[in-house]
Amino acid sequence: MADQHYFEVGGVGLLVDLTDGDPVIAHWGAPLGAAVPDASALSAAVPNSNFDVPIRPSLVPQLSRGWRGRPAVRGSRGGGAAFSPLLALTGVEEGQRSLTLRMADRLVGIDVAVRLSLRPSGLLLLDGELTNTGGDPYSLDRFDLVLPVPGRATESLDTTGRWAREKHPQRRPIDQGSWVRSGRHGRTGHDATAVIAAGTSGFGWRSGEVWTLHLGWSGNHEAFVDALPSGQTVIGAGELLEPGEVVLAPGETYRTPTAYAAYANDGLDGVSARFHAWMRARPQHPSSPRPVVLNTWEAVYFGHDLATLNELADVAAEIGVERFVLDDGWFGHRRNDRAGLGDWWVDPAVWPDGLGPLIDHVRGLGMQFGLWVEPEMVNEDSDLIREHPDWISRPAAGRTPIEWRFQQVLDLVNEEAYEHVLGRLDALLTEYPIAYLKWDQNRDQLELGHDGAASTHAQTLAAYRLLDELKRRHPGVEIESCSSGGARVDLGALQRTDRVWASDTNDALERQTIQRWTQLIVPPELVGAHVGPTTSHSTRRTHDIDFRTATALFGHFGIEWDIRTASDDERAGLRIAIELYKAWRDVLHTGRVVRADAPDPSVQLTGVVAHDGGRAIYSWAQLTTSAFETPLPVTLPGLDPERSYRVATAAPVPAHAAYGRGRPAWLAEGIVLSGTALAVLGLPMPILNPEHALLITVEAVA
Ligand code: GLA
Q1: pLDDT score for 658
Q2: Given the CA of residue 327, which atom of ligand 1 is nearest to it?
């Protein structure tokens, strides 16, 4: 009888074959239905000049089993011994939708376990652990989590980026060899890929089969596609370890970060649906309406002054803002970015009466108060580092890493430094009614070290411990994961925070791409999106208020601009957008995110459809000039084909946003159409100038 386990959950099938004591994922993808075959009976042919048995990618692919791709576990003992494990199954624990596979190599002296857990959303979670069962230290180089993909997955996709331009997709054919995305930033990184994906030819947002993997980790990492001449392809991801970074004493265990895997047969929207559903089902997922934010950074930068900030708060409250966030500049001697990080006490020179007067004013206006911190960092020009120069994380005693934004990393692996910063943050949260922390982390550090050994692994765990402990002590406080914009967007960080700052650019055109791809895995309610100044500070592009608000609406909406200087038109536009956001945030923040594979690359359609199919809101953004005189009719995906819908524009199209001599008639008073008509025929669109957007609301009629 076949020794195998089959799970089918949420439209995903997972078949694990345990024949010969070597766990193999025989299938991960479409459901197989009732007649699951005996996987071991489907063994492949054996070619000439090859191993004498068919070779399959084990759950933990290894040299000893003939896998000539990237081995998943690498390590050794003193002098290079024990370099090639031969793992054999020692135990199986089956849960309702999970399987833990325990393996061991007694000679090499390691126990390995991989837990596979298929969630109701169809998301597959993988966790690994490795224990040194030998009598001397075992130095671990790598432990990847790996999944096979079928040969019909011929194209890969991942995202890359840089500061103020995160999450841009890159695609390529899967040729033989390894495509490896390495992150060596000491943090997740601006270039970190949202997922490593393999899919069928031409897969898009709405079509194609696609297999994806995301590593929930905020330190160094690798994600890869490995395609072998054998015809076998795997995708995988794991922590990237420096030599000697993880040395396990006898009995000690290393745990991998969790890898999150989504398969979909309906394109990348299907992948998002699994990630979003899984995240939304977590007990800690924010359940209150996401408040409209005003952040002070691009409004005043370091120019902190109570009267100015009070005025800003007055205007904010008047237009409907619900949370006021004081950004960098309130502590230490922080008059610019050269000094003060580490000194987490309120600067009496700027705030003679502490933060109390501002907080009272903000709360008196009915808004929550939020505060910026960067707990993992220090300036060398700080009282903290003058007192404790040895608290800087460094690769070796006597060597100080190159500065980045005039700052260094606080060595959180040093328990005293950790306790110090925990104590300061705890004191702040105890003293003041702070509802929200914008938790920043603003530098790459490629040589994080503690006591002369690489410490990115330990530093990342210490940062997690700090977040977890503060959450435990102050459970009501929400935390944003910011890292020079979007350099810490990963599910490891998001397991202990409540939103991400997707990018430091508030330029709406840039944001159209960044938010789209960040939301491949992160649901919109966790993606901070702000309306920036009229002329963007990061690109100097000027955008009208309609485009800026329409872009920010499809996330956790906020404003980051000195709105005291906003024109009457701009204030009116903000009011309209805030009302719309409040009326639609229940849909925007719980519904299914849909994107269209537009035949015209100059436009981008993004929508969110309520789960009952009764309401939806779409943004149709004209990014560049179009090749067409008249826009191609736009089909609205995700609606119920059987229902009728009233379709209308949510906000008037400003006169200068459109050109041409006539606009489609439906724009004046709306139109009722069936879900089928909207999906098949589509809607005619006005001729928009580039960098404008039309918001469309859709509501079912009885
Ligand atoms: C980082 C953040 C910004 C802002 C500044 C403050 O760059 O990403 O949003 O908070 O730090 O110094």
Answers
A1: 84
A2: 10
Q: What is the pLDDT of residue 662?
A: 83
| Distance from C-alpha of 166 to C-alpha of 182, rounded to nearest angstrom | 15
Same domain? 391 vs 263:
no
Q: What is the pLDDT of residues 609-636, one digit of tens each?
A: 999 999 999 999 999 999 999 999 999 9
Is 253 in contact with 165 (CB distance < 8 Å)?
no
Q: What pLDDT, on the 0 to 100 scale, is given for residue 25?
A: 98
pLDDT for 695: 97
| Region of residue 143 (phi > 0: left; psi between -120 and 50: alpha; otherwise: beta) | beta
Kindly give the parts of the chain with pLDDT less than 70: 1
DSSP string, 301-322: TT---HHHHHHHHHHHHHHT--
CA distance 63 to 83: 10
User: What's the total number of domains in the chain?
Assistant: 3
Please tell me the distance from the alpha carbon of residue 498 to that of residue 485, in angstroms, as a whole number. Answer: 15
pTM summary value: 0.98
Mutate to test the pocket of ligand 1, among 325, 328, 336, 337 (most ligand atoms within 8 A of CB): 328
- Residue nearest to ligand 1 atom 4, measured at CA: 297
Indicate if 158 belongs to the active site. Answer: no
CATH number where 404 lies: 3.20.20.70
Distance CA 238, CA 260 (A): 11
Note the pLDDT of residue 1: 57
Per the rule left: phi > 0, alpha: psi between -120 and 50, beta: everything else, 450 is beta
* Angstrom distance (rounded) from CA 129 to CA 538: 43
Which domain, by its residues, includes 204?
4-280
